Amino acid sequence: MKKLFFTLFAIAIFFGLKTQESVTLDFCYLKAIENYPLTKQKELLNASNDLIIKNLNKNYLPDMMVNGQIHYQSDVTKTPFQDVSIPGMPSMPTVAKDWYKITLDVNQVIYDGSITGRQKNLEEINLRIDQQNVDIELYKVKERINQIYFNVLLLRESIRTIELHEKILTAKLKDVESGIKNGIILASNADIIKAEIIQIEQSLVELNIGIQSSINILNELTALELNTNTEFKTPDVSIDLNNYLNNRPEFYLFTLHQNKLEASKKVLGSKLLPRLYAFGQAGYGRPGYDMLKNEFDDFYMIGARLKWNVWDWNRSGKEKEILDLQSKIIDTQKETYDKNIRIELQNKIAEIRKVEEMISRDNQIIELREKITKSSSSQLDNGVITSTEYLTELNAESKSKLDLQTHKIQLIKAKLDYKATLGNL
Fold this sequence. Notes:
Elements: H1 2-19, E1 22-23, H2 25-35, H3 40-57, E2 63-72, E3 98-111, H4 115-181, H5 188-222, E4 231-232, H6 249-270, E5 275-286, E6 297-307, H7 315-381, H8 387-422
Parallel strand pairs: 1-4
Antiparallel strand pairs: 2-3, 3-5, 5-6
């Protein structure tokens, strides 16, 4: 029995600790990125790029090819003395018209005009572009986490304020019921307060469902096991409104595309540089290199080869001009994007200033509302006013308190939105 008691006690402690589990916004970011399927694409992109680079490195290895040929031709090489018989001299051999040849041809790059190295650099930039596109999508996940996380914070503040409002009404209901017994207050006043309490309970149900829904979405995004007892810590957000630096992942993508254009220009330049190769050939066949030797023989050849396209009718120059124009187009897109970010930041700054101003007024409103409600409470106790009139003032007080807490969270959210717009999440 004692063992069962301690087991149940341990379970109770475990779940008690679990209900006090806390989570931060940064931790949600981390887990959402880890859990998002697109994150795996980075590893796949790296693996794909490694294979591409390995293939390009094979350009430095020799090409080896086995070639074979059998053919019959209508005529063969002859000399003017082919059919002349000279006493004491062997007759000139006749080359057969059926030829057989098998060779191993080897071609080794000595200098390729740096085209392989520049192609490797181009592929590295392509990899960075692909990875940056992934980062853009992952950044959107962070922005989505912001909305859900702060939705939970706002709903919970609403619940705290409404629950406090409910406690005040429950206490006032007892006072009203006491006044009804003493004949000071009409019985209908108690019914009005009871109806208000029921409406509050409806609101609490609705808010709790909203919180549960948001937590479910967070769990899906982060693979965490959050619940309604999990503490969502309010982040501490600081911003500098005086310094502007656009760190948006989309903005950096423009630069990467321009880098790709520059790398493409270098690849084009390599096509006009000379290329030097070493080559060799070894074979067996009939005839060999000695065309007049009408028998099977082995043969080989080694040497060097130079290729140099000294003039391509300015085709490469025109292609470079096209790439330059594309880079200028990206400049205009980049400038437009940056201007839109600056405009959006002005909206964010205006929102921050507005909420700060509202908070400064909230405290004054709450102080006045508390005085009005206190006076109304006393008047209701003495039968001077009805419950409806008292509820009007109490609701106004509760709303002012809720507004203050909501505005505090909205201010943090507005600052975070400012950072998000700059790309600083």
